[in-house]
């Protein structure tokens, strides 16, 4: 069952990459529904790039927090993330996550970014953790 789920997710990722419009860097921006579907895959790494204060106020479940504005973002990402697993990244509104996605994709990560950020996640009524 797990292999079938991985196969389905892999096919979805492949097909979505064929039809998506790319941002600067080699990553894909996604709407809330597509992002939500994507992160259901247990192999997906979830990354919140907001400040610790923002993260503490609420975040998507099972995410790690690395502030993209911190000078050590790149080295922290390399120590906490695995390059052989895709990364789903978000911030508050989508600006910082695009910056993080560009940095990570240049380092060799496969990256998916929540286009309008955590704000759009909350507006869609999606579940959050505090």
TrEMBL record:
Keywords: Signal. The keyword Secreted does not apply. The keyword RNA-binding does not apply. CDD domains: RHOD. Residues 1-22 form the signal peptide. Residues 47-130 form the Rhodanese domain. This is Rhodanese domain-containing protein.
């Amino acid at each position: 069952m797990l292999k079938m789920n991985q196969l389905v997710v892999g096919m979805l990722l492949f097909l979505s990459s064929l039809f998506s419009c790319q941002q600067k860097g080699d990553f894909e921006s996604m709407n809330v529904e597509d992002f939500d579907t994507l992160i259901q895959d247990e192999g997906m790494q979830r990354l919140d790039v907001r400040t610790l204060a923002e993260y503490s106020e609420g975040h998507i479940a099972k995410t790690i927090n690395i502030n993209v504005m911190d000078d050590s973002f790149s080295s922290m990402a390399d120590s906490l993330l695995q390059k052989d697993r895709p990364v789903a990244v978000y911030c508050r509104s989508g600006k910082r996550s695009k910056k993080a996605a560009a940095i990570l994709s240049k380092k060799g990560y496969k990256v998916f970014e929540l286009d309008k950020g955590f704000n759009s996640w909350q507006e869609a009524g999606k579940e959050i953790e505090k």
